[in-house]
Amino acid sequence: METSQLHVHKAGWAVLVAGLLLTTFGIWWTLFLLLYTLLFALGFTLVLGYWGYLMSQEIMKNILEQDFGPVSKGLEKVIQEIQLSRMSLKMDKRLTGSSIIDEPLQEVLQLFFRDYVHGWYYSSISTDEGFLYDLRQTLQRALIAFANRSKDVEWVNFLTTRFVDDITNHLKIYRKAKQRVEESEVDDNATLDIETAFFQVEHEMEREICREQICLSEGKEKDYLSDISEMLLYLLLPPDDFHNKPFRYFFRLSISQFCAK
Q1: Distance CA 60, CA 54 (A)
Q2: Following CA atoms 122, 126, 130, 132 in sequence, which dihedral angle do they give, to the nearest 10 degrees?
Q3: Do residues 182 and 144 make contact, with C-beta atoms less than 8 angstroms apart?
Q4: What are the pLDDT digits (tens) for 192-247?
Q5: Burial annotation 16-40 (CB, 10 A radius, 16+ → b, else e)
Q6: Residue 15 pLDDT > 70
Q7: Radius of gyration, CA atoms only, the chain
Q8: Residue 161 near residue 150, CB atoms below 8 Å
Q9: For residues 197 and 179, what is the distance between their CA atoms, to the nearest angstrom?
Q10: Tell me, what's the pLDDT at 206?
């Protein structure tokens, strides 16, 4: 009986408070007040729970340090060691042994990396300098191998015989092609451009050699440059670097694109 009377009193007080709120603030402000009270209670509970979580973590850390000593930060130490080792990277800029030749070559390498590597590497892959360092080291080894092999070439014989013959032959083909174009202009029935005439004369003079497709087709030109690049890489790169297919394909594409432009 007493319990039922207590419930009646509580219900009466609740009805009285609700009536006062409705008559004083109206239905909308009453709902807003209830919502604010609910959100305040929820926020207080969350803050109290987060504070308890932080305190429990701190207590757990203190207990672990008391039992096992300070917690080791091995991963951070490894990262710091790697960063320090990368900061100490040193580049040997000697290529041919002559500073007059090495300085322009280093400038060419710097421009090559700036125009063809840094753009896509820094923006799309990483800011790590280790890959660029290894890439430049490999390029320098290739240039050193090229310089050493070029010392074995008989440059005097090449420049005074074969090179001169090729230039002379090219000029002969051009003059004949130009003459053929002039003759076609006189003839009203046919017109001939210089490129077509040049490769026609080249085919007639060289017989089995014609470079028309390589010179006039961009795709064939890139394929030809890729083949030449791979042959040079085979001759110049160390065996371990050459047999690394992704590395070799990257170099082949970079060199062919650089020469094509």
Answers
A1: 10
A2: -30
A3: no
A4: 778 888 888 888 877 777 777 777 777 888 888 888 888 888 887 777 777 888 87
A5: eeeeebeeeeeeeebeeeeeeeeee
A6: no
A7: 41
A8: no
A9: 9
A10: 76
